[in-house]
Known about the structure:
Helix content: 40-55%
Number of domains: 2
Shape: flat
Low-confidence stretches: none
Mean pLDDT: 85
Amino acid sequence: MDWELLVVGAASAGDSVVLAGDGEDLSTTDLLRRVAAAMDRRARLLPVPPVLLRAAARAVGRGEMARRLLDSLQVDISHTRETLDWEPPVSVDEGLRRAVAPLRG
């Protein structure tokens, strides 16, 4: 069933807000590693302490950008799971493979 149809047709959702997500919290580093793996490549990441990245970003007026990259974005989908009896249709890794497939040729 399509996600949109599930939400529109669910009387149990009422007027509540439902959030979609993959159900897995990832750090930016882990996300980059998994994107590289989905592309059959090795991630080349330099180990730089976040405090240094934040300081450097603030020094060049990019503190907010550093915050968005270094802080966690967590989406709690437990309400959606319970209200709609829903589970994410694909894993993070499968979603990343699908997302990068056009780039791989």
